[in-house]
Design a protein that fits this description.
Low-confidence stretches: 1-5
CATH class: Alpha Beta
CATH superfamily: P-loop containing nucleotide triphosphate hydrolases
CATH architecture: 3-Layer(aba) Sandwich
Number of helices: 4
CATH topology: Rossmann fold
Helix content: 10-25%
Number of domains: 1
Length: about 140
């Protein structure tokens, strides 16, 4: 009876803390692929995000609710509307992109770092596409 009681009366596990993050970067930087990988989804048929998407990424001790914002020119000007409530930022950049795109990414990163709703938050800057021949080193980026 003790053993059965311990199994059936234990109750649900305690809830894991949830954290709200925003994921930004230019189109093609790899934001959607990153989130698909974190969610163990198939990398096939990944389509560039138009607007935004939200994914809950479960880890053993926490759940990350990641709001991915599309990186197209006409969408970036609306990024700041989605910053409220964020507790951290993932900035993804294509380390194999052109100099012009890298400069645009740098400007967007600096803008995000200075934004009042983000400037005090932790930032993860992910230099993606390190496997490509044209990839720059972390120092170059």
């Amino acid at each position: 009876w003790q053993c059965f009681r311990a199994l059936c009366c234990k109750g649900p596990p305690p809830p894991r803390p949830e954290y709200d993050l925003v994921c930004i970067g230019l189109t093609g930087s790899g934001k959607t692929s990153l989130l698909s990988q974190l969610c163990s989804e198939s990398p096939e048929n990944i389509v560039s995000t138009t607007g935004f998407s939200i994914k809950a990424v479960p880890f053993q001790n926490a759940i990350l609710n990641i709001k991915e914002l599309g990186g197209a020119d006409n969408i970036r000007k609306y990024w700041s509307r989605y910053y409220q409530g964020s507790q951290g930022v993932i900035f993804v950049l294509d380390s194999a992109s052109s100099e012009d795109d890298l400069e645009t990414a740098r400007n967007e990163l600096h803008s995000a770092l200075q934004h009042p709703q983000l400037c005090t938050l932790p930032f993860l800057i992910l230099a993606n596409h390190q496997d490509k021949p044209a990839a720059r080193s972390i120092q170059e980026v």
